[in-house]
Amino acid sequence: MSRQSARAHRRPRILRRVLDVGVTGFFAAWFVTTVVAQHPDRAYDRVRRLDVGVGNAAIPNWRFFAPKPAVEDVHYLYRLADGDRSRHSEWRAMHTISTRRLRQALWFPGRRREKGFFDVANLIMTVSPEGPAHLVKARESAMESINDAVRLSAEPEDGMEWFQVMMLRYAGHDRTAKPEYDVIFDYARFDREAAR
């Protein structure tokens, strides 16, 4: 075999070797980048900037759960008050949280109401009362929807036509955890028309 034919014979092997190493390296780098991009800490999302040029399609996002999953239950308590708000009833639960069962990890359609209360609480907690006007309006509407829920579920007692709502969070499964008292609403009347 001549030298020329030996070189010609080696070229495809070298090219194939370079191609194999390049493709393997590319997919290894893509795999590592994808794994790093799944980290729950959003600081690792910087690697996603590499994906902007291809429409965020090359690096998959396999975070199937919320970045901060709910680990606490939201409870609303209310108490009744008289006209001058000097006399109050005890705090009462507006609703109860269902005890968890194993099957509910897969399917729990009965929790929609609780989820609604949780979503309202999230809005109330994340929007500042001094924020943009449209967000403040949304927060006030969320608080009024909780007041409406009290109006539907509770009854005024003799001389106690006002009520006040308190929102608190605690880990329902952990009885040793102390509740966090988040918001105490302004007083509201049961009779909405008389309050105006």
Structure, explained:
38% of the residues lie in helices and 14% in strands. It is of the alpha+beta class. It has two domains: 3-54; 73-195, no CATH class. Strands 1, 2, 3, 4 and 5 form a five-stranded antiparallel sheet that branches. The radius of gyration is 30 Å and the shape is elongated.
CA-atom Rg in angstroms = 30 Å
Shape: elongated
DSSP strand content: 5-15%
H/E series:
HEEHHEEEH
Tally of DSSP β-strands: 5
Mean pLDDT: 80
Count of runs of 4 or more consecutive helical residues: 4
**pLDDT < 50 stretches:** none
Summarize the SSE layout with pairings:
Layout (H helix, E strand, L loop, with lengths): L2 H35 L35 E9 L10 E2 L18 H15 L6 H21 L8 E9 L9 E5 L3 E2 L2 H4 L1
Antiparallel strand pairs: 1-2, 1-3, 3-4, 3-5
Helix pairs in contact: 2-3
Outline of the structure:
With 196 residues, the chain is α+β, with helices and mostly antiparallel strands.
Entry keywords:
196 residues; alpha+beta; 4 helices; 5 strands; elongated
